[in-house]
Amino acid sequence: MYPYNAEASPGGLNEIMRRARPSIENVFPNSQMQKSRSTMIYQPGIGKRSSEGPQTTAPFSGEATEDLLRHASELPQSVLENLSESESVRNQIREKALRDSLMGGARGDIQESRRFFSEADWPKAVAMIRKGITPAAALAALGYNIKAMAADER
Q1: How do residues 32-91 score in pLDDT, each as one tens digit?
Q2: In degrees rounded to 5, what are phi and psi of residue 48?
Q3: Max intra-chain CA distance, the chain
Q4: pTM of this prediction exceeds 0.85
Q5: Which residue of 21, 70, 133, 140 shows the fewest CB atoms closer than 10 Å?
Q6: pLDDT over threshold 90, residue 131
Q7: pLDDT value, residue 128
Q8: At how many degrees (to 10) do helices 87-103 and 12-27 cross?
């Protein structure tokens, strides 16, 4: 969660965690903070699928949202409606957006897509995509502009 080099400052992590604890507990209530050590690098999984595997997308391009909607069109409509109507699912999306906004540095396009999927009636867009309409046109029919939506940094 924090850039920290244990070899350079072995006692420093305790101080960082002591100061950060109230903020962390505010974002993650009822959590148990524990020390851990990891050599992995965090890489957000934002991109689109391709025959060669996952591909990254340019920030604020709308490509990841388009890809998600295209792949959602392969699911039964009832699954999408159940997801979009589930208050639990919507709350989870909102909580991730809030968590990332409190941590700072969250990409605005990801946050805006989260807002869209937590508030919009997006299965209607998917139903249109199933009929052959492009994701951008389906969103436009619902009053959204995928490029403007991706660039909106609320």
Answers
A1: 666 555 544 444 456 777 788 778 877 778 888 888 888 889 988 888 888 888 888 899
A2: -135, 160
A3: 60
A4: no
A5: 21
A6: yes
A7: 92
A8: 140
The distance of Cα 139 from the centroid of its chain, to the nearest Å, equals 18
In this model, does residue 151 exceed pLDDT 60? no
Residue 154 — very low, low, confident or very high, per pLDDT cuts 50/70/90? very low
- Identify any residues that bridge with 29 across adjacent strands, giving them in sequence order: none
- For residue 36, give the amino acid letter: S
> 68-79 as b/e, with b when 16 or more CB fall inside 10 Å?
bbbebbeeeeee
Task: Pick the closest to residue 153 from 88, 109, 92, 97 (CA basis).
Answer: 109
Count CA atoms closer than 13 A to 42's CA, side-chain side: 4
Quote the distance between the C-alpha of residue 27 and its chain's center. Answer: 16
> Which residues have a Cβ under 8 Å from the Cβ of 128 and sit 6 or more positions away?
137, 138, 141
DSSP assignment of 28-92: STT----------------EE--TTS-EE--TTSSHHHHHHHHHHTTS-HHHHHHHHH-HHHHHH
Average confidence score pLDDT of the chain: 77
